[in-house]
């Protein structure tokens, strides 16, 4: 097999070529950290993720691969050797491994949710002043509210099952890690947060300090959403009634209301992407440029088609025209990476209603 010029054997082990973009964008993030990193590629399967991190980024000094499946571990060992990656394979269960090891960056890439492993990942930083956690979640349906009870059970949070479910889902995942980080006296700084196809990827910096840990908790709240009139807002508490039309809200949370990305970090990732000939280079460039401005807006967006339907209107204008019209009215507005038909704006639904349709 080959992925981005790395030759490796996959045999009958798990290798998903559709996750190439996830590995590439994460590798850019690893490179953008700049200082030396010893990495744990937990859930390594063939090892392609950790091998790419090491081969593509000169700041990666060593990678430990963790994989509990015997045949996958065997292949991973071969792939590490054939690619001359400095590091070793641990054929053991991830949580068990993390009881006795610590790293600068821990990669969580299990099947489904990272929740069963996040505690031991976070705990492994307990004697350190800083660190990085990179986590993939493929339980998108759970985080987006298709399985309401599962989200309550796993994330202790109420999901939103509506037009902004992907942004709310990413924020529920971040809140899970923020809570754990607080327990170990770390603040989290999300470096990038991605919702793409069927997965979420969050990449966080941890900084030690009781005040920083307390600050995490201040960034946690709810998104209150009115399906009737389209009003929505991030608040510290859930609101039962919409303040505009008095209908019942569909609130989501608790979730992370703070920043999703570090502008500085995304800029560095963009620079690295320019110099790498990734097959997903153009798509990554688009995603990074959309992420760059997302944090200047409230923690939600408006879907053009859903909004039109809600307002009883037809024929929405092209997105760029709506954005230009909002800006003309002195509201900030931009596209979002969370949805191709989404607009982030400081304008209320009443203003959007007047501008959204060409009829
Ligand atoms: C989603 S795949 C990893 C994909 C890989 N990181 C990549 O980028 O191609 C998950 C892998 O984790 C392994 N795994 C699952 N649970 C584990 C655990 N608790 N400890 C160690 N390995 C585990 C599975 O055998 C599987 O190979
Ligand atoms: Zn309302």
The low-confidence runs, each spanning 5 or more residues with pLDDT under 50, are none
Biggest sheet: strands, sense, closure?
7 strands, mixed
Instruction: Give the CATH superfamily of the largest domain.
Output: Vaccinia Virus protein VP39
Counting DSSP H or I runs of 4 or more residues, the number of helices is: 14
Oligomer: single chain
Give me the CATH architecture of the largest domain, please: 3-Layer(aba) Sandwich
Order of helices and strands: EEHEHEHEHEHEHHHEEHEEEHHEHHEEH
Shape: globular
Helix percent band: 25-40%
The small molecules bound here are: S-adenosylmethionine, zinc ion
Main β-sheet, spatial strand arrangement: 5-4-3-6-7-9-8
Q: Over all CA atoms, what is the radius of gyration? A: 21 Å
N- to C-terminal separation? 53 Å
For the record, what CATH class of the largest domain applies?
Alpha Beta
Number of DSSP strand runs: 15
The fraction of residues in strands falls at 15-25%
The structural class is alpha/beta
What is the total number of structural domains? 2
Overview of this protein structure:
The protein is of the alpha/beta class and about 350 residues long. It has two domains: about 1-295, Rossmann fold; about 300-355, Phenylalanyl-tRNA Synthetase, Chain B, domain 1 (2-Layer Sandwich), CATH 3.30.56.70. It contains 14 helices and 15 strands. The strands form four sheets. A seven-stranded mixed β-sheet has the order 5-4-3-6-7-9-8, sandwiched between helices. The protein has a three-stranded antiparallel β-sheet with strand order 11-10-12. Strand 4 (about 60-65), helix 3 (about 70-80) and strand 5 form a beta-alpha-beta unit. The longest helix is centred in the middle third of the chain and has 19 residues, at about 165-185. The chain is globular and about 65 Å long. The mean pLDDT is about 95. The chain binds S-adenosylmethionine and zinc ion. Zinc ion binds near residues 229 and 242.
